From TrEMBL:
Pfam family, one: NIPSNAP
UniProt organism field: Sphingomonas psychrotolerans
Protein name per UniProt: NIPSNAP family protein
Keyword Signal: yes
Keywords: Signal
Length: 143
């Protein structure tokens, strides 16, 4: 089931009309990271608020390109649902540098401290690194 879910998600991302505008300058050479967050019990709303109010802006500040975000409906595997998103980077090295700078950012550390005062928001994170296949359609920018 997970592989079917991931395949559908990748299809949705690569078909998004705005992908060419949001991805690295060369979508064929970019590294895409699919991240899946499992919220702690009762923390989905707080996790979404943290992304909405802080995280996306801080990702941009550190060179990460926000491609798309989803909320998965609750399942037996993830009773709280999951937050799923894709970021794009020019390279894996750029990704590592961006995350290092993001993690050390005093503004991010303050956001985490405030948002997790009542306990951690996330119990598990999965990460999948992807590059576009050479046969993947190139997406033209939307007008």
């Amino acid at each position: 089931m997970r592989s079917a879910f991931l395949a559908g998600l990748v299809l949705a991302v690569t078909a998004a009309p705005a992908l060419a505008q949001l991805a690295a300058p060369d979508p064929q050479a970019a590294v895409y990271e699919l991240r899946i967050y499992y919220p702690a019990p009762g923390k989905l709303a707080a996790l979404n608020a943290r992304f909405r109010d802080h995280t996306l802006k801080l990702f941009e500040k550190h060179g990460m390109r926000n491609v798309a975000y989803w909320n998965e409906q609750p399942t037996s595997e993830a009773p709280e649902g999951r937050v799923i998103y894709v970021l794009a980077y020019p390279s894996r090295e750029a990704r590592d540098a961006d995350w290092k700078a993001f993690g050390a950012d005093p503004e991010w550390r303050a956001v985490v401290a405030a948002s997790e005062a009542g306990g951690k928001l996330v119990t598990k994170v999965d990460s999948v690194f992807m590059t576009m296949a050479d046969y993947s359609p190139r997406i033209a920018p939307s007008r």
